[in-house]
Amino acid sequence: RAALDRAAVLLRIKRDVNRLDNVWGVGGGQRPVKHLVKEMNLLLREYLLSGEVSEAEHCLRELEVPHFHHELVYEAVVMVLEGSGEESVAMMVTLLKVLWETGLVTLDQMNRGFQRVYEELGDISLDAPLAQGLLEQLVELCFDRGVITRALRDACPTR
């Protein structure tokens, strides 16, 4: 499944040079942002289906973009807010906790990801009316598990 998903991403890349660069391993920082965002979304969706934290961690390392891990945090939180079910909340908290503990996601990256969600909550709520409640639940759970700081928890917009 992972090989097919990866192949589909490579085939969708428009320019042959980019396709070859990705196949032969150009470093992550040279890849287009849209490509990295797609890869992160794919990684998160696969994680929600499989529940394999180690595989998600491995895929994130392979992207080779530690300066862009705030995007993974942002996409993970938005995916929870737009999704349905409390199972995805618990799974994302588990993933964020592991990424935090292993040092893959730094304090600054975690803060930036959550802050972006806070700033865009109004727009997100238009598509997902339950987003505010889910965000409060997610933030509280992240704080309880030691994923985010008290200051970040207190910065969460409330109703």
TrEMBL record:
The keyword Repeat applies. This is PDCD4 protein. The gene is Pdcd4_2. Residues 35-158 form the MI domain. The lineage of its organism: Eukaryota, Metazoa, Chordata, Craniata, Vertebrata. Belongs to the PDCD4 family. The keyword Repeat applies. GO terms for cellular component: cytosol; nucleus. Keywords: Cytoplasm, Nucleus, Repeat. InterPro entries: ARM-type_fold, Initiation_fac_eIF4g_MI, PDCD4. It is found in: Cytoplasm. SUPFAM superfamilies: ARM repeat. GO terms for biological process: negative regulation of DNA-templated transcription.
